[in-house]
Amino acid sequence: MKTNISIIVFMLLFSTVCGQELDYSIIDKQISVRDFIRANNMTENDFFILNEKYTIERFSYKKSDLDKILSQNDTIIVYQNKYPSDEEIRFINHKIKRKQKLSQISKIYDVDESIIKKYNFNTKILKNNVLKIPIFGDGKELKNFLTSHIVKPKEGKWRIANEYGVSVNFLEKLNPKIGKVLKVNQRIAVPVLNNKIYEKSNNLNDLEYFEVDNKVSSTELENELGLEKNSIALLNPSIKNINDLQGLIIKIPKKEGLKQINTKLNQSSNIDNISNLDLKKIALILPFRLERIDLDSIHLVKNNLKNDKLLNISLDFLFGAEMALNKFSKLGIDVKMDVFDNSLSKKRIDEIIKNNNIEDYDFVIGPLTNDLFDYFVNSIPLSDTKIIKTLGKKSITSKNVINTIPHDSIYFNSVIEKVKNDTLTSSKFIISDSKKINISEKLKKIFPDAQQFYSQINDSGIDTKTLVFEDLDSTFVDGRNILFLETNDQGFVSNVTSILNSFISDDQEIVLYTTNKNKAFEGVNISNTFLSNLKFQYASTNRIIDKNINQDFINEFIALYRFYPNKYSIRAYDIVYDLLLRYSNGDIDDPENHENQTEYIENKFKYYRTSTGSLDNISLYFLKHENLNVNQINN
Question: Residues near 58 by Cβ (< 8 Å), separated by ≥ 6?
């Protein structure tokens, strides 16, 4: 039988494990599966894993499947296996008889004509000529390059890709029906690993998963990250081509400052690690105070919506949470959210606790106000249900509490580290009002050469929250001047930034910092021009939404709610979506889960377990005013 197969390459997929290559083949003339496999140097195992429509069971085909016919124009996925060398194949010599045709010889040995030609390209089919006939038996001399992997709890695409030394993209192409979310006990195709090594001694709590975007060798990356020689190879034994890590998932030791290196590392996505597909049940406790609204009066309802700040924040938060639920449900996991109005009342909190089993929820968001949050936490029995603090600073440290806003010390230390890492020669100055003298003294201990200035106290002993030009005249030096401004008073910020702006010149640069950026720096009396001129920098819980990257979210939000999403809606979205994913990754108390850093529209999260048991977020941004914009800088 003469087989004519034309190969048309639609896409080329590479894996660093063994240099695998997948392409598509269009059948030019009908052929049996058996003959196609032999002609294309594939194993039966690999063929049916790649072309599951020709067998009932992808990973356990039947011998009868080999007799199925591939019709003209059928599209077949082909694995270009390296054909065994002559030394690895057993040959039989066949002396050609009179009038014997190649097709007859092919049938005698059950070897395709194209394969016989491959090993006898200089031998004519003439009497008494000798042909070398390769004997494959059942094809066992050809090595399988594909096998199956059973998904284990907590395993996601990232980890499996890392284990087998391939990219997530290759894993998905190998398994076109894999879906967004892997299920426990799901069977997927993976490359065969030779001499597979498991590093049992690795402490996973000390490792992080990253995807490498740039073309870089393990040696180059080790040098860039300051890792020990060969550490990447030892932690990632399945990766064979250590000279090019691009597109691969790698494990590396947890290390600060990874965002500052030249190589682009994308941190593991919680979507890729989903293992818990159970229904998620959450609760939202917000201060709507619906009893204050007369729903029979449109005028009064509009008045409430216009003037009731807490009602507006509650609605903003609700809408953001709904957006998160909509996004999460598209992953194929059911979620139920109960919403309660706490009416800013402890009595109402008692009723919510009495009428609902709080332990039925995976987590509860709220109450939003500090006093009611603390009251709620102290009024319910300790359980696995987490209570999420979303807006206020940390006030309670129970083991069932998650504080999403970092502690003040995180902001303070981040700013100090930023200033200390500034290698340019500079003079330091500290300005504070009477309520921030303790911060001023703390900064003075860190920067002992810094000059301190305080807001003026009048004759009655009252802090005026002002400085005058003369207070700072002849203070600043030519060159770089770094100044800390510590206050919660908007008027003082306006006063000081105006004065500082007048001292900026070609010879004098003033860079403004604060260790506690608050609403005083955002008021209507604050000049963004002055802040830009002063290159104002600070640590922040959130960044400014990138309209280009998040335009789809913005459009969807406006279509649903008829207004632009504000910081409360976006924060609710980021928190709820992140927590739903973390709960779908497994136990939230597992350090491997809550210590994984994630980043969304305006917020990022990485939690650590405090000595008192709470999970506290330690992730923040470093922002800088420049050219009338607020830009994110590396931190």
Answer: 48, 49, 52, 187, 189
Neighbours of 224 (CB within 10 A): 14
Q: How far is CA 545 from CA 283, 389, 555, 569, 571, in A?
A: 26, 22, 13, 12, 11
Whole-angstrom distance, CA of residue 531 vs CA of residue 627: 9
Residue 505: CB partners within 8 Å, gap ≥ 6? none
- What's the CATH code, domain 409-540? 3.40.50
Q: Which residues of 380-419 are buried (b: 16+ CB within 10 A; e: fewer)?
A: beeeebbbbbbbbebebeeebbbbbbbeeebbbebbbebb
Structure tokens at 333: 């996991």
Q: What is the pTM of this model?
A: 0.69
* Rounded-to-integer distance, Cα 429 and Cα 537, Å: 15
Bridge partners (DSSP) of residue 336 are 281
- The per-residue DSSP string of 17-74 comes to TTTEEEEEEE-SS-EEHHHHHHHTT--HHHHHHH-GGGSSSTTS--GGGGGPEEPTT-
Cα–Cα distance measured from residue 280 to residue 335, given in angstroms and rounded to the nearest whole number: 5
Are the CB atoms for 72 and 26 separated by under 8 Å? no
Element (H, E) at 282: strand 280-286
Burial label, 623 (beta-carbon count in 10 A; 0-12, 13-18, 19+) = buried
Topology of domain 86-135 in CATH is Membrane-bound Lytic Murein Transglycosylase D; Chain A (3.10.350)
Q: What pLDDT digit, counting tens, does each position of 309-327 carry?
A: 899 999 999 999 999 999 9
pLDDT digits (tens, 9 = 90+) for 516-557: 999 999 988 999 999 999 999 999 999 999 998 899 999 999
Return the amino acid letter for 157.
K
Burial class (CB in 10 A: 0-12, 13-18, 19+), 567: middle
Whether domain 280-406+547-624 has CATH 3.60.110.10: the reply is no
Q: Locate 192 and state its tokens.
A: 């065969």
